[in-house]
Design goal:
By secondary structure, this protein is mainly α. It is built from 13 helices and no strands.
Length: about 300
């Protein structure tokens, strides 16, 4: 039962993060990448504190952590939130959705590489095949079935930022899975998000001083969505799933992000092709094969 709940939470999280691909571009029309991140995590932290209060009440003030646990939480925040969101925002300013989503889709393979070196966790041949199947599905979605799009792919500075995002995010999930599996997901997400908020606030301080606060409804709507759903709820759910299902399995679900991004593009006037639905089917098949092989 807990596993099915974790899977449902993962799918919902990927949906929220897919929406972020669209709304973050709206927010960055008003503010810089680091400024947008600071506003986002302000509301993210507020929503997380409310979630903690409803779950623990006044007991939340009695939480105690060791120096070692706090250190790994800082690393999780620095790699998995601060650098991840910073690279994400910077990358989407100068790279295409095709390049960015394709690079992000390498996160499961990168996570598997980290778990191999840090945890000596070897993937079976079936699990490797499942990752390949899922990645092929992502490639089909992004290229619309035209292999020349992949063959002629050229990396820009934005692509490098997105690749950096995939690397640091995957590393953070291994840290959580290896060193923080005993820490409650809500507690850990709140603390790591608070650390990220402080970091983003420090970097965005000059902009806050020199630039007026945006008043556009589109800006605040996108900020609130990213802060409450795309940060507070999504990160809590994802860290919960990393502990329950493992880092490699959880990050494999990130291959759903390009599928959801394409489907959500319809309200923005972008056309959806049948070949993209074929790619989505392959992504689901890859996830199912990986899940069944791990269960065995």
């Amino acid at each position: 039962m807990k596993k099915s709940i974790a899977v449902a939470l993962l799918i919902s999280t990927m949906l929220f993060w897919a929406v972020n691909f669209h709304v973050v571009k709206i927010a960055m029309e008003y503010y810089s990448p680091v400024g947008v991140a600071a506003y986002r995590f302000f509301f993210g932290v507020v929503s997380l504190i409310l979630i903690m209060y409803f779950q623990f009440g006044k007991k939340m003030l009695a939480f105690r952590f060791t120096i070692k646990e706090l250190w790994f939480m800082f690393l999780t925040s620095f790699f998995g939130i601060f650098l991840t969101i910073y690279f994400f925002n910077l990358g989407l300013k100068s790279t295409s959705a095709v390049n960015g989503s394709l690079i992000i889709a390498t996160s499961p393979a990168i996570t598997a590489m980290f778990t191999y070196f840090l945890q000596k966790n070897i993937l079976s041949a079936i699990q490797k095949l499942a990752i390949v199947i899922s990645f092929v599905g992502v490639a089909i979605i992004l290229s619309k079935g035209d292999l020349r799009t992949l063959v002629e792919l050229r990396f820009s500075i934005g692509d490098i930022y997105i690749l950096g995002m995939a690397l640091v995010f995957s590393l953070s999930q291994v840290i959580v899975s290896k060193y923080l599996p005993h820490v409650d997901a809500i507690e850990m997400t709140t603390i790591t998000s608070l650390i990220a908020l402080i970091l983003f606030g420090l970097f965005a301080l000059p902009e806050f001083v020199s630039s007026p606060i945006p008043t556009g409804l589109a800006f605040w709507g996108s900020i609130l969505f990213m802060g409450i759903l795309g940060t507070g709820i999504a990160y809590s759910a994802f860290y919960y799933c990393v502990v329950r299902l493992g880092a490699t399995t959880s990050t494999l679900y990130m291959n759903l992000i390009p599928l959801f991004t394409v489907l959500l593009a319809f309200p923005f006037g972008e056309r959806i092709y049948g070949i993209q639905l074929v790619g989505g089917l392959l992504i689901v098949i890859g996830l199912l094969v990986f899940g069944v092989s791990k269960k065995r």
